[in-house]
Amino acid sequence: MLKHLEQQLAEREAQSLRRHRRIAETACAPRQTVSAHDGLPRELLAFCSNDYLGLANHPLLIEALAEGAQRYGAGSGASHLISGHSRAHALLEDDLAEMLSSQGPEVRALTFCTGYMANMALLTALGDAQTTIYTDLLNHASLIDGARLAKAAVYTYPHNDLAGLDRRISACSTPRKLIVTDGVFSMDGDLARLPELLTLAERHDAWLVVDDAHGFGVLGEQGRGVLSHFGLRSERLICMGTLGKAAGVAGAFVAAHRTVIDWLVQSARPYIYTTASPPAVAHAVRASLQLIRRDEGEQRRRHLAALVAAFRRGVPEVLGDLLRDRGWQLAASQTAIQPLIVGRSEDALAMSAALESQGLWVPAIRPPTVPSGGARLRITFSAAHGVGDVERLLSALALAGKDMA
């Protein structure tokens, strides 16, 4: 077994696909001290976190986490259905349900330890043998794995191909149907065609499951997410959102009609058989939701949008030759996720290393996370970045690009 695994690891290394962890020595922020592969710590300007609003190190959230620990202790002690469902969890679910009430009638929320668990719970609890799941090709791994573990039939449709999806659903004979999609696609930063997907769901008597991990807190009125961004309302909508990205803390939730939530409590194994997250975390998330919905949250969203716009204006100027001659692409994204698609894994690694030599932390994303030939730099922005940080990134890209050319 060891020889087999060593051979597999060597093959990944040869294909420039082996992954390596870095150790962050300081809090999540644009400037982090990071231990490199040689073990030596170094301060880097990071464009790689999902802390889109810059709240992960916000003093009010740190204070709320400490206050929650003082009030509720360090851990929950049991699953939600035994003794681990604290008042902090209950209040958070009430806050989320009120925040997302525009999604549809009788919306309730259920919290989970992670978004991965929430998606696994959703699809395995709803995807029985009398159901067909239709999932976008570029959906997150948690949705893919949840569909695989469900008892339902599964059909993967080409990315945002609604005409093909319509034809496929029209031929479906199962009583129940789930259309499953990311709201903001995590590796490309583009949006699902949710208004049209909801129209399809209504036409074919289907449910629409939306993973809003990268939209919640950033998009929509008061950061309510991608459903609010499109102004969608229907009892057919089931929304999963994470609380460790724009919200800056940890955990996840599902928001849906109260009957869906009741069913998840009864049947979702990743919920039933997992120790509840620490109540202190839920307490801190409640403070985060207040920040997201207040003027400060709106100011952070506007600032983030301005940074993204400045970056997109600058890329053609600094990488024009590579975009034209080598077929590199800046993905068509208006979100905080700005992928620079370079194609080959070795080129993505070389660009990442060149940026790090200039003091920037921008990771290379390679297959199987992205399709073969789609290796990229996944550049992400935070409201904690400044205009000068974007200028430094563009200058570093220009220098790294010259070496590649």
Order of helices and strands: HEEEHHHEHEHEHEHEHEEHHHHEEHEEEH
Whole-number tally of structural domains: 2
What fraction of the residues are assigned to beta strands by DSSP?
15-25%
| CATH-defined superfamily of the largest domain | Type I PLP-dependent aspartate aminotransferase-like (Major domain)
Shape by Cα distribution: globular
Describe the largest sheet. Answer: 7 strands, mixed
CATH topology of the largest domain: Aspartate Aminotransferase, domain 2
Helical proportion?
A: 40-55%
> How many helical stretches?
15
Mean pLDDT: 95
Structural class estimated from helices and strands: alpha/beta
CATH class of the largest domain: Alpha Beta
Q: Biggest sheet: strands side by side, in what order?
A: 4-10-9-8-7-5-6
pLDDT < 50 runs, ≥5 residues: none
- Total DSSP E strands: 15
